[in-house]
Specification:
The complex is a heterotrimer of chains A (566), B (368) and C (324). Chain A is of the alpha/beta class. Chain A has 20 helices and 23 strands. In chain A, strands 13, 16, 19, 20, 21, 22 and 23 form a 7-stranded mixed β-sheet that branches. Chain A starts with a helix and ends with a helix. Chain C has a single domain, classed as ABC transporter involved in vitamin B12 uptake, BtuC (Orthogonal Bundle). The chains are: A alpha/beta (566), B mainly alpha (368), C mainly alpha (324). Chains A and C meet through α1, α4 and α5 of A and α3, α7, α8, α9 and α15 of C.
């Protein structure tokens, strides 16, 4: 069989090596880190061609057009926003600009000349740099090694650390080149990405949702760095769905929907609502948040709860206190990786503890009880990761319903006692009910979970729990990676559940979401939880400081006291 | 040109069905080439290999004798593999089942009551299950890789059998041959039909397949096994204890292999010898994959692989080719099965490597 | 040559194939590919090394062809697991089963044929040194290669840029792909290297260790090599320690029954009675020692979760399909 095939592969590998060598000697000026050349290129007048032009670029995946004849112009020294919902085609476009994907049609014009960008190193050679949303970093390697990997042909050890240090000082991005990336916080990781990108002295920097992982204050610092880059004449392509941010920072915006350009505008002359309309195509239904029904009935409590770190890169939970009243929604804010998933595991019972009393559900101690026992007490859980945690990707929706409810709804779904014969008919009936209730769009009767879009799968997963009318719902990142329509529907459903007399805990890294749904807000930072504050008595700045860890650790005692007083 | 994979939105049901046959076809094709290279008429060779053994009653009995352990073990393995527990030590569990099941016939040769055979079978099952539980416990308690520990235990079991047969259990009246005394009449698994040697092991295999299929496809236990294999994190979310599942599948698989072991010894060999298996425990891995880890598929696959044993012997006699060809066939078959399974989840696309205007950069895209 | 020296020499010989095969597998696993087919590639190396030595009359050409055959054979695995993203565990098993089958078929005519032994190359002057002269400087070329490989692999992984790229691919193939590193190319090369090493290790068996062809002569060494990589927590120097530890165990079980304990000069009296006890055990129990030791070693190392979690290449065993 494969011998000739193997030979072909061999030939390809050979030619790649040759080509790579050519590139190395050609394109890159790694050694010349002087910023003067870039600084001289000032904002161009009307006569000069833009830094980058994209003409009628199209990308097909099979029959599906991820990008349809997109036009885009980015001038020198311009911060250009690329707006659009999840699945609008932003990443596809950007990946083509960075050489990770090849366009099916259309052309890319770089500084007036048509170019093909066969791979990321060619893009870097041209002067295009990229800061990824889900960082392209290597946890087990040092910061210096991570940087070295993006610079072809550079010596991984020498000089680089020094240059990196210089750059990070210049742009206000403090970094230690010797630390291991796996030990860094999310904000620090982003700095590594940015410094790595800047080391190549790029003319165009692409940033994919850079603020989604930052505290408001960290985001502020980032904006200053970006302004600085702009002053040097560099262009920035800024991908975001945070409209306020775009209005504040960007000179120009291009809006995508369903793979097509639906608008080109100066964001300062638009309102957030008009931008949203261009993104979504219609007005999003306003979320209705009725007044809380005041009760003192505590449905879920954590009392001086501690949890050891499960793995080397995990966060231990320290002295967590939380009391959730009936009818309210508690929002738990925090930057990614500060112990939120550990907190979720602790509340759901995926991790149990020896002290039975430190977790209670509807006044019953449950610290030692597993997830199904807690479900039987009326709790329901929605984890952050949809595929692989909340659902099994290759399983049909009906099987994924069974996944969460086989024990709590044993009477309905299983037969013949110990044998546990699965009563398909009942499971499928319930699946159909949930699909209709939550308006889950899908192909086929009972498709595999992986074939659904993020938003539709999330609607199903949330609907699976709401269908049980739980008295306590704990949900981690309810609208992460979900389109605006689905997000609105999910948030409304969560609010409605709470108003009907249940308790809800919403863990989210999205402050907008927290402020939209929560009645009280607490903040996770390095495994500590701040004491919840009424939404009326707090604001983004205060929450931002707590997210950065200012004043959480030491105020534990005080927090506990004020909690008791309340 | 280069090969690219494109993920299917949904796994293809038709390819799930076709892929084993495609693999079989490719193996036969490769086999024909191999026979041609060895200077034999490939059609005649294939006939001798795969058709002739089916043409006579006695050889059908032999087929059942060989297929039974393969099917039993592979069925147990399917539970392990479905839950991502890579037990490759079934050969050792088979051996220890055979040894444990032989305790009564070797130490109490005079016992011939009706209780003896069921007791022997039970001992076999327990022996295999206990041996199988070792890698499971080491995995659960210490995180030791079950692939390596289960395999190492195959060697240990083999040496244990060797020692017990040459040492303490050697037949006192056996002229120093390394074998135990022959089992007495009440300790031998009876034949099913008068027409040949096939013993009750074949029925047990059938029973095992039906039970395993029912558990996997219709019960919550089977669901649990699949969730644990597909997504361990989701299994915890479902409240399944992955460690218990691991122990469970190893116990069941060890039990199945142990049953196969005692059936082979009691039904076919009728005494213990230093070597009691032509590698059933390893061939069963191929059977399990060829059957797509589905007990019903495994039933068919077991018969095909048993045929390759018989065909190997037949080809050795009729064509004078080495019976090692059987092993090569088996290896090739597993390769093709795994390759064809890719088609279930992916579409294969041949993408032309563009050579537009001789841009050097284009080529770098080639191997990406 | 004293008995101690002779025993040490056999330990070196027993350790060499383990060292070479483990180093190859280490490189492959560092790139994220778990190739369980080491046993199969090793036995292919053993038979091809033997056969080509017979055909050409030169054990060196035999060893070279063993490397090539091992590499080529591993490409079968690479094609399935890297290009077709087949399950790495199952495919590795397939490679072993196929290797045992093909080598059995190929080697049938060589059973009982006297082999060609690769003679030691005595290094002048250095070989005159006491003890180490015999052990380190009067060895065959494959032994010298094993040491060179150890140094080379250590340097490559931790000092060279390509080694950094390889470790990066093993840490996160998605990040590597995003940076424009060719994950597939890197992995193909790493697997080919692993295959070549396993082939050479096999050639050592049939050209140095026991210069003849015996079916299944690798006898589980490929699997032990795999365990050594875990034992060494993916670090080359610890592989050296592991390989020699296992070499010692193998030799101990071979010789312990044949030798008179009083001849071993370095045996402390406290260990004497223990050794007597071991000597009294049946030979099968002694033969099982390397396999049992493998299990024990795995248990000890894996029991330290932190150590294994920190060192295991994060993408080990996971197939890579570039996403949209």
């Amino acid at each position: 069989m494969g011998i000739s095939r193997l030979y072909q592969i061999y030939i390809e590998i050979e030619s790649t090596l040759v080509a790579a060598k050519k590139l190395d000697s050609g394109g890159l000026e790694v050694t010349n880190l002087g910023m003067s050349s870039a600084a001289n290129k000032q904002r161009t007048g009307g006569g000069e061609p833009p830094m980058l032009s994209v003409r009628k670029i199209t990308k097909l995946f099979g029959d599906f057009a991820a990008n349809k004849e997109i036009d885009l112009d980015i001038g020198s020294g311009e911060i250009h926003a690329l707006l659009g919902e999840n699945g609008a085609g932003k990443s596809t476009l950007v990946k083509m600009l960075y050489g990770s994907l090849q366009p099916t049609g259309g052309e890319i014009i770089w500084k007036g000349k048509p170019v093909t960008i066969p791979n990321p190193s060619a893009a870097r050679g041209l002067g295009v740099g990229m800061v990824f949303q889900h960082f392209s970093l290597f946890d087990s390697l040092s910061v210096a090694d991570n940087i070295a990997l993006s610079l072809r042909g550079a010596d991984p050890i020498t000089n680089l650390s020094e240059k990196a240090r210089e750059l990070s000082k210049k742009y206000g991005l403090p970094l230690n080149p010797d630390s291991m990336v796996g030990d860094l916080s999310v904000g620090e990781r982003q700095r590594v990405e940015i410094v790595r990108c800047l080391l190549q002295n790029p003319d165009l920097v692409i940033l994919d949702e850079p603020t989604s992982v930052l505290t408001p204050q960290e985001a502020e610092n980032l904006f200053q760095t970006l302004e600085r880059l702009k002053e040097e004449g560099r262009s920035i392509l800024y991908i975001s769905h945070r409209l306020e941010e775009v209005k504040r920072l960007c000179d120009q915006a291009t809006i995508l929907r369903f793979g097509e350009v639906t608008g080109d505008c100066d964001p300062n002359k638009e309102t957030a609502a008009s931008l949203a309309r261009m993104m979504v195509g219609s007005d999003i239904s306003e979320i209705k948040k009725n007044a809380t029904v005041e009760t003192d009935n505590l449905l879920l409590t954590l009392d001086n709860f501690n949890l050891e770190a499960a793995s080397p890169f995990a966060i231990p939970l320290t002295n967590i206190n939380l009391k959730v009243r009936q009818g309210e929604i508690i929002g738990i804010a925090g930057v990614a990786g500060n112990g939120q998933s550990e907190l979720f595991d602790a509340m759901s019972g995926e991790r149990t503890v020896a002290d039975n009393n430190c977790v209670t559900l509807r006044s019953q101690p449950v610290g030692k009880l597993g997830i199904n026992a807690r479900r039987k007490l009326g709790a329901a859980f929605v984890p952050e990761e949809r595929l692989g945690h909340g659902a099994v990707s290759d399983f049909r929706l009906s099987d994924n319903l069974l996944l969460a409810r086989h024990d709590s709804d044993r009477v309905a779904f299983l037969r013949f006692g110990k044998i546990g014969f699965i009563w398909r008919e009942m499971v499928e009936k319930a699946t159909t009910r949930i699909i209709e209730e939550m308006d889950v769009r899908k192909s086929g009767d009972d498709p595999e979970a992986s074939s659904l879009s993020g938003g539709n799968l999330q609607k199903f997963i949330i609907g699976r729990e709401l269908d049980r009318q739980p008295s306590v719902l704990v949900v981690n990142q309810p609208s992460w990676g979900v389109d605006a329509g689905a997000a609105a529907r999910i948030r409304q459903a969560i609010i409605d559940l709470a108003r009907s007399g249940s308790s809800v805990v919403v863990i989210s890294q999205d402050l907008d979401e927290i402020f939209e749904v929560a009645d009280r807000i607490a903040v996770m930072s390095e495994g500590h939880l701040s004491s919840p504050e009424d939404i009326a008595s707090t604001n983004r700045e205060k929450i931002g400081l707590l997210m950065a860890g200012v004043g959480i650790g030491e105020s534990d005692g005080a927090a506990a006291r004020s909690e008791h007083a309340a | 040109m280069r090969l690219e994979l494109e993920k299917r939105a949904e796994s293809s049901a038709s390819f799930a069905l076709i892929s084993p046959f495609l693999a079989l076809g490719l193996t036969l094709f490769a086999g024909s080439i191999m026979f041609s290279l060895l200077g034999h008429n490939p059609i005649r060779a294939m006939y001798i290999y795969f058709i002739e053994p089916l043409s006579e009653t006695w050889s059908l009995h032999e087929l059942a004798i060989k297929a039974a352990p393969l099917i039993l073990i592979a069925t147990g393995l399917s539970l392990c593999f479905r839950s991502s527990n890579w037990n490759i030590g079934a050969e050792g569990q088979f051996t220890m089942g055979a040894v444990a099941g032989s305790i009564i016939p070797v130490l109490m040769p005079e016992q011939n009551g009706l209780w003896v055979l069921p007791m022997m079978l039970l001992c076999g099952i327990v022996g295999g299950a206990l041996w199988g539980s070792i890698p499971a416990l080491l995995k659960n308690r210490f995180g030791a890789n079950e692939i390596l520990t289960s395999l190492m235990l195959v060697y240990v079991a083999g040496l244990f059998l060797d020692w017990i047969v040459r040492g303490p259990w050697r037949n006192p009246g056996g002229y120093n041959f390394p074998e135990t005394r022959g089992f007495s009449a009440g300790q031998i698994l009876p034949e099913i039909l008068d027409s040949g040697r096939a013993h009750y092991g074949a029925l047990f295999a059938l029973l095992g397949v039906i039970i395993a299929w029912f558990v996997l496809a219709r019960t919550i236990k089977g669901f649990e096994i699949q969730v644990v294999g597909e997504a361990p994190r989701a299994a915890r979310f479902a409240g399944f204890d992955t460690k218990k599942t691991t122990l469970y599948v190893f116990l069941v698989c060890g039990g199945f292999a142990g049953l196969a072991g005692i059936c082979e010894v009691s039904g076919a060999i009728q005494q213990l010898r230093p070597v009691i298996s032509p590698g059933y425990g390893f061939t069963a891995i191929i059977v399990a994959f060829l059957g797509r880890l589905n007990p019903l598929g495994i039933f068919a696959a077991g018969i095909i692989l048993a045929l390759s044993y018989l065909g190997g012997e037949a080809a050795q006699i009729s064509l004078g080719v080495s019976n090692k060809i059987g092993n090569v066939f088996q290896g090739l078959l597993l390769f093709f099965v795994l390759a064809c399974d890719t088609l279930i989840h992916y579409r294969l696309k041949l993408v032309p490597t563009r050579d537009g205007a001789g841009i050097a950069q284009e080529a770098t895209h080639g191997a990406d | 040559m004293g008995l101690t020296e002779a025993i040490l020499l056999t330990i070196f010989t027993a350790a060499t194939p383990l060292l070479i095969a483990s180093l190859g597998e280490l490189v492959s696993e560092r790139s994220g590919v778990l190739n369980l087919g080491v046993e199969g590639m090793m036995i292919m190396g053993a038979i091809s090394g033997f056969a080509f030595a017979q055909i050409t009359g030169s054990p060196y050409l035999g060893a070279v062809s063993a490397i090539l055959v091992g590499s080529l054979f591993s490409m079968l695995f690479a094609f399935l697991t890297i290009t077709l993203v087949a399950n790495q565990v199952a495919t590795g098993l397939a490679l072993t089963i196929l290797g045992l089958g093909v080598s059995g078929l190929w080697g049938e005519s060589y059973i009982g044929v006297a082999g060609i032994k690769m003679e030691p190359i005595v290094i002048p002057v250095l070989s005159q040194l006491p003890v180490v002269g015999k052990l380190l400087f009067s060895q065959d070329l494959i032994f010298y290669s094993s040491i060179a490989l150890l140094v080379g692999v250590t340097w490559f992984l931790f000092r060279s840029r390509t080694g950094l790229v390889l470790r990066a691919v093993g840490d996160s193939h998605h990040s590597a792909h995003a940076l424009g590193i060719s994950v597939i190319k890197t992995r193909y090369l790493a697997v080919a290297f692993g295959g070549g090493c396993a082939g050479l290790a096999g050639a050592h068996l049939s050209l140095v260790y026991t210069p003849q062809w015996v079916e299944n002569m690798s006898a589980g060494r490929g699997w032990i090599a795999l365990a050594l990589v875990v034992f060494a927590s993916w670090r080359p120097l610890r592989i050296l320690a592991g390989a020699y530890l296992f070499g010692a165990i193998t030799i101990a079980q071979l010789h312990i029954q044949a030798i008179d304990l009083r001849d071993i000069e370095f045996l402390p009296s406290a260990l004497f009675s223990l050794a007597e006890l071991i000597k009294a055990m049946p030979s099968q129990a002694l033969s099982a020692l390397p396999y049992l030791a493998t299990i024990i070693v795995l248990v000890i190392i894996s029991g330290n979760r932190r150590l294994t979690l920190m060192n295991t290449p994060a993408s080990l065993g996971k197939g890579f399909v570039p996403d949209r």
